[in-house]
Design a protein that fits this description.
The chain is built from twelve helices and eight strands. It is an alpha+beta fold and 325 residues long. Strands 1, 2, 3, 4, 5, 6, 7 and 8 form an eight-stranded antiparallel beta sheet that branches.
């Protein structure tokens, strides 16, 4: 049975028999495998901890392992600690670099080759990752898409490893409650999406995407009044519908929430203004406050997640840009 169906997950397996190790991995992931002995005495270890929402895994295999991983309900993020790994992501063969996480898309088969490797993995519920992406304003109507051709930033990779370390310590120190575990899964999903941002739903495109007249009206109103103190409640009152009806319509049509949509429109406006501003005459705080972001630290975190860089970096681009010819 694939590990994503098990709840809770708590495994620890070790051995020196190549056949037993291959059978274990094949059963765990539903994969077809080919294995070869290593030049050194064979050794195998596998451990996992968590539940169906999120689980942490470590694997050590002294030998050559190749095969194909079938589609899964989980987003599997893996990174090498030692050895070598090559992934066929559906066209290009990706050679993994130690320490750099690579997510596998849940709706695609991946072929792989690993040699004398030790790696870590995080299994995240696809539903959780899609929900967090939608809250960030991403378009996940066609599913999650991770662009492996664009390396994640060093800062985002550090954030990922720090996040996983925090989660690992929390899980190993005891069994966190369901609420805490769910929040940790959301934290891991947000960290993953910082490394591999999803394509955001362009705010104006949302007008055409929405089936509901109320959502279309809400989208247009937010665009026209983005500087005003709009809230989900005030938006519902403006449209003369219940708060719950508005939230359900946004989730159904845009796979997002009204709050997330309002925030993304404002973040986009902040970015446009920062790119058009002179760093010597403007501060990030002034621009952010002008678009309704009162808490600078929280705004900076949201901006980093949305655009993959700090707002100060965006503002400073003007001074770094070369003069035109």
């Amino acid at each position: 049975m694939p590990i994503d169906d098990a709840m809770p997950v708590r495994l620890e397996v070790a051995g020196t028999d190549l056949g037993d190790a291959a059978t274990f991995i094949a059963d765990l992931y539903g994969a077809d495998l080919q294995v070869e002995d290593a030049a050194v005495p064979f050794e195998f270890r596998y451990a996992a901890l968590g539940d169906a929402t999120m689980s942490l895994h470590t694997a050590r295999f002294a030998g050559h392992l190749a095969g194909a991983l079938p589609p899964s309900d989980a987003v599997i993020v893996q990174w090498l600690q030692s050895g070598s790994s090559r992934l066929d992501t559906g066209g290009d063969v990706l050679t993994m670099e130690p320490g750099v996480p690579v997510p596998l898309m849940p709706d695609r088969t991946f072929s792989f080759e690993l040699d004398d490797y030790e790696q870590r993995l995080v299994h995240l519920s696809r539903t959780v990752v899609e929900r967090v992406a939608a809250e960030q304003g991403a378009d996940v109507s066609a599913g999650l898409r991770f662009d492996h051709s664009v390396p994640p930033s060093e800062q985002s990779v550090r954030t990922w490893h720090n996040t996983v370390s925090l989660i690992s310590h929390t899980l190993r120190d005891g069994s966190p409650g369901r609420l805490l575990h769910a929040e940790m899964a959301r934290l891991a999903a947000a960290s993953l999406l910082e490394m591999y941002p999803q394509q955001r739903l362009a705010p104006l495109e949302a007008v055409h995407t929405a089936r509901s007249a109320h959502v279309r009206a809400a989208v247009e109103y937010v665009h026209e009044n983005a500087r005003m103190p709009i809230t989900t409640s005030s938006l519902a009152r403006h449209l003369d519908i219940s708060l719950r009806a508005l939230q359900e319509a946004f989730q159904r049509d845009l796979r997002s929430t009204p709050n997330a949509f309002i925030r993304q429109v404002r973040l986009d406006r902040v970015r446009q203004e920062l790119l058009a501003s002179e760093p010597a005459a403007t501060t990030v705080r002034e621009v952010a406050a002008g678009w309704g972001f009162a808490h600078l630290g929280r705004f900076a975190q949201q901006y980093q997640v949305a655009f993959g860089e700090a707002p100060k970096v965006t503002l400073d681009r003007t001074s770094r840009a070369p003069d035109g010819g």
